[in-house]
Write a structure and sequence with these properties.
Belongs to the cytochrome c oxidase subunit 3 family. By secondary structure, the protein is mainly alpha-helical. Helix content is 75%, strand content 0%. The chain has a domain of 127 residues.
Length: 224
C-alpha cells in the first residue's frame, strides 16, 4: 500500500505542512525564470564575442594590449581597482539581502545606494581606461585588440547601466507601493544579476590582459 500511496501523491497541491504548490511557487517565480533566460542569452552573446576574439588573435595584424612593458595593459592597476569596485557592489547588495530581517529598511536602502554608487564608479573607472588608451594612440580601429577591448568592456558597461536603471525603478516602486515581499524578491534577482556581471568581468579582465603567447596557447587548445 505504501507504493500506491506514494504514486497517488500530488506534490503540486499544498499540503498541511505547507509544502507543495505554495513552496514551488515561491522558488519558481516568473521573475526568476525570466532572469535565467535573460542571463542565458547574454552568456551566449559574450561567448560568441569571446570565441570571435580568440579566433582573431591568430591573425598577423593582432597585437595584444599586454605582455610587454611598453603595452598599455601590462600595468593593469586601474583595471584591478575597477575589479575591486564592482566586487564591493555585489557585496553591498548581498548584505542588503541577507540582513532583510535584521536591520532597518533605511540601512538596507543605504547598502543598495552604496552598491549603485560604486557601480557608477566602476563605469567611470572603465571610462578612464578608455581615455588612457585613446590618449596613447590605441584607437578603436587601429588594432583588432583595441576594437575588442572597447567592444567587450563597453557591452559589459551597458548591461551594468541597464541594471542600474532597473534598480532605480525598483526603489521607486517600493516607495510607492511599500510591498516588502515584492521588493525582496526583486532585490534578490538584482543581486544575482550583479554577481553574474562580476564574474563576467573577471573573465573579460583575465582575457583582455593576456599576452600574445597566452592567446596562442589558448588557440592551440581550442583548435583555432
Amino acid at each position: 500500500m505504501g507504493l500506491f500511496n506514494t504514486l497517488a501523491e500530488k506534490p503540486w497541491q499544498e499540503s498541511s505542512s505547507g509544502v507543495g504548490f505554495a513552496h514551488l511557487e515561491e522558488n519558481y517565480t516568473p521573475g526568476k525564470t525570466a532572469l535565467k533566460f535573460f542571463l542565458a542569452v547574454v552568456s551566449v552573446v559574450f561567448i560568441l564575442f569571446i570565441i570571435t576574439f580568440l579566433s582573431r588573435t591568430q591573425f598577423s595584424d593582432f597585437q595584444a594590449l599586454a605582455g610587454e612593458p611598453w603595452l598599455p595593459l601590462e600595468n593593469s592597476d586601474q583595471l584591478m581597482i575597477n575589479t575591486g569596485v564592482i566586487l564591493f557592489a555585489s557585496i553591498f547588495l548581498q548584505l542588503s539581502v541577507l540582513l532583510k530581517n535584521k536591520v532597518s529598511a533605511n540601512t538596507r536602502f543605504s547598502l543598495i545606494c552604496l552598491a549603485m554608487v560604486v557601480s557608477l564608479l566602476f563605469i567611470f573607472g572603465q571610462w578612464q581606461v578608455w581615455q588612457l588608451l585613446n590618449n596613447n594612440g590605441y584607437y578603436v580601429n587601429s588594432n583588432p585588440a583595441n576594437s575588442f577591448f572597447y567592444l567587450l568592456t563597453g557591452l559589459h558597461a551597458l548591461h551594468l547601466i541597464g541594471g542600474l536603471i532597473a534598480m532605480m525603478r525598483l526603489l521607486y516602486v517600493f516607495y510607492r507601493n511599500n510591498n516588502s515581499s515584492q521588493f525582496n524578491r526583486a532585490l534578490q534577482l538584482a543581486t544575482t544579476y550583479w554577481h553574474y556581471l562580476f564574474f563576467v568581468w573577471l573573465a573579460l579582465f583575465t582575457l583582455l590582459t593576456s599576452s600574445t603567447e597566452t592567446f596562442k596557447t589558448i588557440a592551440q587548445i581550442c583548435g583555432f
